[in-house]
Amino acid sequence: xxxxxxxxxxxxxTLMIILSAVVIGVISLYRIPLLYLPEISGNSLQVxxxxxxxxxxxxxxxITLHIEDAFRTIKHVETIESTSTDVSSDITLEFKLxxxxxxxxxxxxxxxxxxxxxxxxxxxxxxxxxxxxxxLPVVEFSVSLHGEVADLYDIVENILKPxxxxxxxxxxxxxxxxxxxxxxxELDFEKLKALKIDTFALRKNFRENNINxxxxxxxxxxxxxxxxxxxxxxxxxxxENLPVNEKGVRLSDVADVRYDFPVKTSYQxxxxxxxxxxxxxKSSDANMVSVAREVKDCLDKIGAETDMRKLxxxxxxxxxxxxxxxxxxxRNAGLLxxxxxxxxxxxxxxxxxxxxxxxxxxxxxxxxxxxxxxxLRKFAGSEVTLNIISLSGLMLAIGMIVDPAVVVLENIxxxxxxxxxxxxxxxxxxxMKWGGRYSRNGNNNMCxxxxxxxxxxxxxxxxx
Length: 464
Hints:
Blueprint: H1 3-9, H2 11-31, E1 44-50, H3 56-71, E2 77-84, E3 88-95, H4 101-115, E4 127-129, E5 139-145, H5 149-165, E6 170-176, E7 182-187, H6 189-195, H7 199-208, E8 213-220, E9 223-229, H8 236-240, H9 251-254, E10 255-260, E11 269-270, E12 273-282, H10 288-304, E13 311-318, H11 321-349, H12 352-379, H13 388-418, H14 423-454
Antiparallel strand pairs: 1-3, 1-4, 2-3, 5-12, 5-13, 6-12, 7-10, 8-9, 11-12
Helix pairs in contact: 1-14, 2-12, 3-4, 11-12, 11-13, 12-13, 13-14
């Protein structure tokens, strides 16, 4: 028994299958993650070692060559490229296609730990960059304030950032354009020379007097107390009063000590005022649309508070908008397709019920697709998501739904009118004749795209 005969002879079973798929499809629409792009990862890693106030030749000798020697023993590395400038050493590693980049990243970290003893002691941090589409910010916005920069920093760090981080699905909040206040010690070299104070000894003295040390423990009966000596500086005045030699000369006598913001190397402006840029990243399993909506709602609530009226916020990038636009385009394409189908079929067949049957096939097919995607994620471990690429494909697929439906329906009407068959027989014969051909055509398309989903597509930069 073919599909057409089964559907005609068992209408209740067919109806229940369709309703089940539609219900699961509606539920799946809210369970499938909405992303801007599918998960895309590169096959390369970039290592950056900042080291200011030096020359490219020195950075190459002190940093780049040591790191390159360590990286040569990492497995599956095809090329190593390095660039040494006066402020940093940048090394790019390109791996063979198909390399597990998570394991490769761990190997790179291990090699950096091994070579760290050969690098200069005053290197602050070593950064490892790996491109992943999931790391793109969900919402990016600027914040400015009618007031001092210190007030803007306090509001961003103590109010905006904590409240956004509490939103479900937010993984990280990155702030650009303003840095934390730091202690600056500007030495007067003429006074140091006159007092015969060595700068290296001064630096060592400064470090040794700014540490906390464990002093063991004290036991009193069954109670045990952990003892620590607190030696870290608690204020600028303590730093100024630090002795720098045996004659009682203090640091304030040979240096200017201040607690201030570092010198800005880049500037962000919003409506003519100093501003900071804030980027909100989501967790890997969070829904981009819901996270973006929650973040914007949070900003609106903060802006509506009385003591925050002087704060000005502007969202300049929201990556959930393209997804919502694709969903709206998909809905509009379905509605437009349904209207055109009703008009064309009613014009030629003069049968409203037949036109409505094909019109209903559009949303049912889309919801069945959502159902299939959800089942793939749930039981097959697939990472398929709704993104601008998959939604664009669904919009194109609407035309593939309508065309065969019109042909099969016209064939059923032809058998009914020309061969004088009843509607049930015409449906079985007409559906069997053309349904098999379109089923084979659909299966060919399915097989073609299944290959692209099952195997990783390597083009040098993308892993689909």
